[in-house]
Amino acid sequence: MLVLRALGLGDLLAGVPALRALRRAFPEYEIVLAAPEQLAAPAAASGAVDRVLGASAPGRAVPVRLDWEGPPPDVAVDLHGNGPSSHRLLQRVRPGRLLAFAHPGTPEIAGPEWRADEHERARWCRLLEWYGIPADPGDLRLPVPDAASPAPGAVVVHPGADSGARRWPAERYAAVVRGLRRRGHRVVLTGGPGEDELLDQVREGADVEVFAGGLPFERLGALFAGAAAVVSGDTGIAHLAVAYGTPSVTLFGPVSPRLWGPPPGTRHVALWHPGPPGDPHGREPDPQLLRIQPDDVLKALFDHPEVPRP
């Protein structure tokens, strides 16, 4: 079985319920996930993927080709988009059966209708349900890594995001860090490649630990699984906190948490000021994101029933 989801970490984690549904429905199949190679570790941690076939494209585009070798897959599943380009990409490897949403550009595919106003986890589970495959959008937790956390009990603050529209200003993150330190919390900053300057701006001389450059997944997973709480924007790291059941506060701006937010309950707090949808890939912080203030984040953390007190 070949499954296409050549996107980022958050996309992979949002697709875990659908991937697990496929594993349960096809236990005898080798499930190959077409995704960026750096996602091999979290894909394996899901317990639903046997191997990753390296595939990616700039932004959220559909890859130009797949380096598929050997006979055609018995089944291909489009968990990437609503077509038609993602459909055509999978059709080129000549699968015996293709599961995908319907699209006028590929009328030969008799799938369910695409709904733009639908939560990402629910969307892919609904696709599989249409094909008679039971799927549970809540089946998203990852097992706790065997490795020890490099900062057990810390509040992890992740200020980065893939786009400026979802990146809260560094000075506001710095204010949150100072507020946490005044309360006696241990604070850790995390960032990916190229975000060292951003982390320096957030740190501003405060007594915090910094993990820059992107941690290996097992160590990153151990850090998040053992954290007291996670603070981040609407990015892949927020989904990682959900995957490990760690209390979190996520800042939303151009995209409603109704589409990409955490599951309902009190453990994961989504801060958002309702308004018209913005461009999630814009260069400047979204106006709705800027309506969130540091005091809003600190209150959500200090009032959180599951965040341990120092």
From TrEMBL:
GO terms for molecular function: glycosyltransferase activity. Coiled coil: none annotated. Keywords: Glycosyltransferase, Transferase. Its EC number is 2.4.-.-. SUPFAM superfamilies: UDP-Glycosyltransferase/glycogen phosphorylase (SSF53756). PANTHER family: LIPOPOLYSACCHARIDE 1,2-N-ACETYLGLUCOSAMINETRANSFERASE-RELATED, TETRAACYLDISACCHARIDE 4'-KINASE-RELATED. This is Glycosyltransferase family 9 protein. It comes from Streptomyces ficellus.
